[in-house]
Amino acid sequence: MGRRLSPLTLDTLQDIPDPCRSCVTWELDPVAARRAGEAGDTAFEKEAWVSATLLEWGSCGRIAYVDEMPAGFVLYAPPAFVPRSMAFPTSPVSADAVLLMTARVLPLWSGGGLARMLIQAAAKDLTRRGVRAVEAFGLAVESDGPDGDGPGSQCLVPADLLLAVGFKTVRQHRRYPRLRLELKTALSWREDVEQALERILGTVRTPALTSQSSHPGV
After folding, report:
1. Over the stretch 10-29, which tens digit does the pLDDT of each residue have?
2. pLDDT, tens digit (0-9, with 9 covering 90-100), for 4-14
3. pLDDT value at position 155?
4. How many distinct helices (H) and strands (E) make up the chain?
5. Which of 17, 21, 125, 203 has most Cβ atoms within 10 angstroms of its Cβ?
6. How far is the C-alpha of 190 from the C-alpha of 108, rounded, in Å?
7. pLDDT by residue (tens digit) across 78-89?
8. Residue 59 backbone dihedrals phi, psi, to 5 degrees
């Protein structure tokens, strides 16, 4: 089974699975997202966001392929590029951190380590670019949809998965804890970024990954 990762570009955006391909929960504020949905323009708005982020900041995601078939993806960007990041009770994201917005593995390939591979790829990319840390709003409790505090569960990474790959909780919440992975710590261990990140992210336990199959969004 061949696996590979590709940067998210306008060419590979089409490989993000539906409904995520046209979801703008993160990319627009709630009012703008609702208007885009009513107008049927969410796919266009998603493409516009990716284009602007690539031009102004750089790489903002990775897509995983298994035997050349899209199997999952991860999105990340500075919080200034992510209007919905301010909607959480555990906001704001720290000024020195990039936000891990979402990660998803299609059910066919869940439990096989792709979630770890995607998050690891994001961490490696950000470390090479001099980012100090990556933060995420984890999902601590299953939810069928928004409850007024933030996006629904389909847009979030389970908190237990983030903890398994080295994140630490920096602000507790019953549903939306904010977690952080210190990338500068990895750089201080060794000059070789690849080996340093293996030390952080290679500690994932198989049960922690296989348990994610109960989370449809990742």
Report:
1. 999 999 988 899 999 999 98
2. 999 999 999 99
3. 87
4. 7, 8
5. 125
6. 36
7. 999 999 999 999
8. -50, 130
What is the amino acid identity at position 86? M
How far is the C-alpha of 3 from the C-alpha of 120, rounded, in Å?
A: 14
Consecutive H or E run containing 178: strand 178-182
Please report, to the nearest 10 degrees, the dihedral formed by the alpha carbons of residues 7, 12, 17, 20 taken in order: 70
Kindly report, residue by residue over 153-173, the tens digit of the pLDDT.
678 999 998 998 889 999 999
Peptide bond into 158 cis (omega under 30): no
List the alpha helices (DSSP H) in 129-190: 159-164, 183-189
Q: What angle do CA 53, 57, 58 make, to 5 degrees?
A: 85
| HSE-CB of 173 using CA atoms within 13 angstroms | 18
Do the bridges between strand 61-66 and strand 178-182 make them parallel or antiparallel, or are there none, so unpaired?
A: unpaired
Residues 72, 189: Cα–Cα separation, whole Å: 30
Residue 172: enclosing H or E segment and its boundaries?
Answer: none
Q: Are 135 and 94 in contact (CB under 8 A)?
A: yes
Closest residue by Cα to residue 88 from 140, 42, 47 = 140
> Angle CA(30)–CA(95)–CA(153) in degrees, nearest 5?
40
Structure tokens at 28: 């627009």
Kindly report the backbone phi and psi dihedral angles of residue 26, in degrees, each rounded to the nearest multiple of 5, phi listed first: -80, -40
β pairing state of 133-139 and 97-105: parallel
d(CA 72, CA 17): 8
C-alpha–C-alpha distance, residues 69 and 103, integer Å: 17
